[in-house]
Amino acid sequence: MNHTGLTEYELLRQWNTRLRVVLLPHSILLVVYFIVCVLGNMAVIYIYQIRFHHNTDGRFFMPYLAGMDMLACFVGCATSLLINFNPVLYPSNVLCKVSYALCYFFSTSSALMLSVIAAQRFLKICRPFKFQMSGRRKGFGIVIIIVVSSGMSVPAFVTFGISSIRNTSMNITGQYCASINVNGSNMTSLVYNCTVSAICVINMCFLCTLYTRIGNKLREMRQRRLQRIATREKWSDADVFTSETEKNSVNTLDKQRRHTSKNVTEMGNQVTLMYFIITFAFSVFFIPTFVTILWDIIDVNPWLTKGDAYVVGFRFSYTVFIINYLINPLVYSLFDSDFRGELQKLIPRFCRNV
Prior knowledge:
It is a single chain. It contains eleven helices and two strands. It is mostly helical. Helix 2 (about 25-50) runs antiparallel to helix 3 (about 60-85), helix 7 (about 185-235) packs antiparallel against helix 8 (about 245-300) and helix 8 (about 245-300) crosses helix 9 (about 310-320).
């Protein structure tokens, strides 16, 4: 291609525009992520915080998790769109550092929130007569999440920033937002991201352990309930009552107690199942992102110098973690009938006002 007569900045704009077009499908996908996430999580906050005035113990964290997810999605999509639209003409070193620090803060907060939720479900189901999370303790847990997430995101101000990238065919140098070398070495960035990845793996193991024990406990409780029902039916058939009226009265009361107990148990089990699915999705969608981040640090050739298919695949893998933040409302609508009923009322009202 003949670049005679064009200034270096004009050549950079040509290169930037070509990459922006290549990344356009991914940018459109990010906009879809953002719209779905905001609408879904706003519905979760509105329904659980306003419509359900007295949330049950299991639903306490849902509005807070939705708020964290919505902020994490906003920051993640905004940061990624800024990179996609300015792949080799990134405007500011400070903006790059702040964007990635906020991404790490909200992503860590969301992940730690799942750990607190898992601990609360474990105590509620496996240790019902021991230490429990009161309202004050839950609030304290949220404060701890914010403090720990802040500490884990601070190093991003050092390990991320503007890096130079050379296009030898056009004989120009651009700048992009990514992990940077500290004191001439990538070791600091590598250690930081490996540490974050290790903490995430430990968190996943912690979550898997708790939900495995919760699942075993729920299975034991179900077996005991079935045994009690079988025992009651056996005694009922023995005709130990003095009259048919007394027998029918006791059977009616017994059925009512069993129905109430079954409803409470099933509600608790559904809440636990919802949180388990959300945790499983967190594990599935975060792994590709961290693998991509580590590969980007190790690879000596920046992703922007690769082929178009690699560039798009790299960006998709880098941002696939955002899907975590938009699937929670779908999980709630599938397993929480109360939420589903309120959502069915909310959608027509929202469509009429648009």
